[in-house]
Specification:
About 30% of the residues lie in helices and about 15% in strands. By secondary structure, it is of the alpha+beta class. A two-stranded antiparallel sheet has the order 1-2.
């Protein structure tokens, strides 16, 4: 989802993935951040998640 929608917010992902709750998405984002695969860019209000350039 993050690859298809760069800059997406965590709260918008469950709307695209009907079978996942916000809590599940937040947990998965945390895991991806710990593995340095994604990063958050921008402010708290307008920022979003992006895949890191490898």
């Amino acid at each position: 989802i993050i690859k298809k929608h760069p800059g997406i917010k965590a709260k918008d992902i469950p709307q695209l993935l009907q079978d996942r709750s916000l809590k599940t998405v937040e947990r998965q984002i945390k895991e991806l951040k710990e593995r340095s695969l994604i990063e958050r860019r921008g402010s708290r209000k307008t920022g979003g998640y992006y895949f890191k350039d490898q």
